């Protein structure tokens, strides 16, 4: 295709702020695979991944500045903060680089954004609970890392959902830092003081920990909305086989990095790409559970790898 | 001579200081007038340092009164102290240390006058001191630090010094430097200044003091002009039962096999007391430390150590400040009697009790914290730590610092008795008198051995000669 | 001196008890057993790393192990990979985990001893390397522990969680070592003044080396148990134990200046750190309030402990 | 006394120079006005935070709350200082005063600074979450202008570093009061005996730390244009590493402000250097550790020289 030739001398870098969980590892892997193939096919000259040692905006800002110095043509960015990188992103734009942010997006107008509507994700969780538990009840909310944009957005969505479905009440809210063991600990600590809980709304990565805490406390397992981790899905499947447990799992697919890569390539190729794109989140239901389990490596996260065609489709949709 | 008519700079009336049940100072009245040089003596723990701290305002009296002629504080009255423990800021330069106690040095360009002032003061007290005002204090030897502290004490610092308190100022100085200080003290007093001079070296006291005050168990037991005391009278007043003297002229003893030989040429035989001498800071302490470190390991400890160490610089090398006296004594002998790596606590207690008695540590209970002891008694704990072990070689780095006359005699006797039983001592001392009691002496100069003296050759003259030779030649 | 409030460790226990009571006040006593059980389970992990950190902090100013989180993650990752969810491999996993801890401890000490790096920096730098090892070894994949091991880690014996038994046993061993053994005396002496200890015949390097190895092995054990307890190792599993390990030591009354340790305080502080978060969560405090109150309580405990200490002196 | 022991600044300076040369060699583009600014502008807030940490280490304490404090300042700067400058300024001043009070309390009650600051780090972090529950705010215009100014000859980052180093050198090393403050670290008792109110000196040292922490947070917002509650958490460890890298020591009042600034620059440069190496993502984090070890190993030479002296 003609677009390919035009970017064959371009170099793309992935700026990543965190590598400490399975989601990020799956993301890095997808990017690497996509990039390797693209380089081998001569689509781009180079596509390198960089990760900062600490999950900090300041360090990532420095990383972006280095990428400018290294002469990359585009930066694919999963940002530590939606606003704190704006200074560095602006510098990159001014230096003529294309910046495509995804997952953790930035608000700087010169950058492209591939966003997931996190608030909608939170609302959808409550909608699902309402469809399953029409008579309502008490909910436990497990949040992510305090002070982070995604945490705030999902939580807002959840609270908006609860307002809409007023048969529900959030009786407890803990921070699980998107980590299994932290969530487990926080839930175990708050459970003794909670009345009966019918549902748990989560942000992904913490459903299994919550389930374990409920089990350890000797309580009935409530309806826990899961976040696509393989161990969560596995647990779900076991529960389903045992007692017909039914729930919903949703999260953003780590493969969105490959989508961002192709969007960056399209921008470099001179395509007219709108600044704001959205990707749907990856939803796993009772029906798709087995298929999802099968395609997800043990210990990893359910994933979708996006191709150039997917990217073009997303772009066309946004126009 | 003293002018008793002039108003005293400071007057204490019935001043007392109690630390809990300890009556460190028990109603002392004393006045110091311009021109006085008061020699303050007393056994370890008599309360000398406590008295000093009352006079300079470091401690508030439990009862009684301290009055200055200016009516204000000690600082305002021109009272200066040189403390028993070195109290400079080691990270600052000599001149910067002057700045600490000279708050009038202000504004940009304070360094130049500070340098000039401290150099001037050093030159006055210690001619040929060779100390650079821009040197950081922790690069100086312990003797040099002591000199700097003394010089800061006598420096004008805006207001002239009127009363300078010297708490064992010569304990780490060699004889030559100490003599310079004594000369300066005499000049200072003759010029109308006052000095309180604390020392366990009675010779020095008789050298400088116009008046001698004897403290015993927190009370003044005697106070007379210096010529009213004889040496023996002074010792008696301090109230220590001294061991018999006169053992010095013993017949030549026979020694065993050579047990120590170091690369720089130090050697010692079983049962021998070997002295290290020379000017302070010429490498004696370093040689001993090297020898100790090479004979022991930081990776494994033997049940019966080969060598033990008695530190002179207590805070840096000797004391474990958080612990009781008991644990401080037993640290080197823990492995003796230990089973399955566990300490034999009964044996430990017995040893501490025995040594408290043998070496006379002044405390009612060995489980008291070590820091509740006076400086000299802390030093005795360090002796006990070394002697309680079974090590055949004992290295002593100027260990008599701050130890009172009576105890010194006891310790000398103990050393001789242990040597007679075949233990070997390597003993560095800044006091030539002590070195002269040794069986063999190595004199150090410029970090090398400049002479090895034995038998009748061990005299003060020969030692001095070997210490200075090089400097005269160059 | 029988006044119990003169003991510096009492304050962490008082604080833990208060947090416990306040939480239960909300439910008028219901769930006491559950809460205590949870506190003992989760407190155990903090207590185990805290005991190790305590030994290091006892070595004196500047001594601290910042590689605990990375060591936990690395050893847990390697252990779970070695076991691969197969039954009967629990012992193999334990050996791998402890081996990884041993290696990390030796490496830390080598940096400190051979390169003379300040321990804070050495362990911080080394922890980044361990983190890389963990990533490289299986790219963050969560492998489930063998079922028997998971059952052990989440199980109970005589009503107490098994992990708490492990933590208690270690605490007793450490206590005996510190109070009664020659090595303990050596450690306390080294912590007061290394030079003095060396001149008193203490093999100070042996003491330091064994301490740094011990803390890493404890961290490895804690990581191994935590991964078994929570269903697998994650790359970020140790993160919160960095500040936690230091906090439980200092809240527990161990002197940060070295030379003085406090074993019971570590357990008290470990329970407190769990209970205070539970309490604040139960009262519905947001992250902001929770942090401010946690900080304020930590400072209050330190002030209380130090005031009593001075009163006694 | 060896040259190295006397001028503890030589070693950090040489490390920085070597690293800079290696960076230029790897990436010649960096050898320009533009390039130097990109390499170093984020080092400016780190340098200020390192100076703050140094003030505390100078009096023998250690501050585990620097990172949280700078984050809080950043949050205030990006919100109150921008929207209501007077209120914002008052809050920042109150923070500095709080720091000074913290120093006084630590001294008066003889508390371990490491624990108090650990507790305070939770407090600062909590307040920051109140102010900015999710990232946002924006930098006051003047601050943004100041941090992106393009002075002639040398880029802002270099000029700012030099200014910080010179000012703090005069403050801490040359001035009389700075000397006394270092004396508190060297031997607080003798400073006390000389008649200084040590409690006020401690409060002053902490107050200065607060001041530089505030400057660090403001500089950071000027660069990033907005803030969040976690933005500078890693400054705690970075600042400690910076002080040590710059030739400072944890105890004894041995610090060097110039060294601290150089240390901060070195740390920043080290991670840039690594990204120029284009390592495999698996090892990028580990390499950061390795280079830290490498740079610090140079101290070994220095230490041996000192031991001989
Ligand atoms: N801080 C303290 N707490 C308890 N007891 C103390 C304290 N300081 C001194 N003492 C006690 O007060 C007494 C007098 O001590 P001081 O230091 O004045 O003796 P000294 O005459 O200077 O002895 P030395 O010649 O050994 O220096 C000693 O018994 C000592 O144990
Ligand atoms: N007496 C001296 N011995 C050795 N070096 C000296 C001496 N006096 C000055 N110097 C050196 O001369 C240089 C200039 O002196 P410096 O500026 O330090 O003095 P100052 O004017 O008193 O200080 P400042 O005004 O900065 O407080 C310095 O490098 C200093 O090391
Ligand atoms: Mg004394
Ligand atoms: Mg003496």
TrEMBL record, chain B:
CDD domains: ABC_Carb_Monos_I (cd03216). Keywords: ATP-binding, Nucleotide-binding, Repeat, Sugar transport, Transport. It comes from the Bacteria. One of its GO terms (molecular function) is ATP hydrolysis activity. InterPro entries: AAA+_ATPase (IPR003593), ABC_carbohydrate_import_ATPase (IPR050107), ABC_transporter-like_ATP-bd (IPR003439), ABC_transporter-like_CS (IPR017871), P-loop_NTPase (IPR027417). PANTHER family: CARBOHYDRATE TRANSPORT ATP-BINDING PROTEIN MG119-RELATED (PTHR43790), GALACTOFURANOSE TRANSPORTER ATP-BINDING PROTEIN YTFR (PTHR43790:SF9). This is Ribose ABC transport system, ATP-binding protein RbsA. It comes from Salipiger mucosus DSM 16094. The lineage of its organism: Bacteria, Pseudomonadati, Pseudomonadota, Alphaproteobacteria, Rhodobacterales.
Automatic annotation (TrEMBL), chain C:
Keywords: Cell membrane, Membrane, Transmembrane, Transmembrane helix. CDD domains: TM_PBP1_transp_AraH_like (cd06579). The keyword Transmembrane applies. The chain crosses the membrane at residues 6-26, 38-60, 66-83, 90-111, 117-136, 157-178, 209-229, 241-260, 291-307. GO terms for cellular component: plasma membrane. The keyword Transmembrane helix applies. It comes from the Bacteria. It is found in: Cell membrane. GO terms for molecular function: transmembrane transporter activity. It is a multi-pass membrane protein. This is Ribose ABC transport system, permease protein RbsC. It comes from Salipiger mucosus DSM 16094. The lineage of its organism: Bacteria, Pseudomonadati, Pseudomonadota, Alphaproteobacteria, Rhodobacterales.
UniProtKB/TrEMBL annotation, chain D:
GO terms for cellular component: plasma membrane. CDD domains: TM_PBP1_transp_AraH_like (cd06579). It is a multi-pass membrane protein. InterPro entries: ABC_transp_permease. It is found in: Cell membrane. GO terms for molecular function: transmembrane transporter activity. The chain crosses the membrane at residues 7-26, 38-57, 64-81, 87-106, 113-133, 153-173, 203-225, 231-248, 260-279, 285-302. It comes from the Bacteria. The keyword Ribosomal protein does not apply. The keyword Membrane applies. Keywords: Cell membrane, Membrane, Transmembrane, Transmembrane helix. It holds the Pfam family BPD_transp_2. PANTHER family: ABC TRANSPORTER PERMEASE PROTEIN YPHD-RELATED-RELATED. This is Ribose ABC transport system, permease protein RbsC. It comes from Salipiger mucosus DSM 16094.
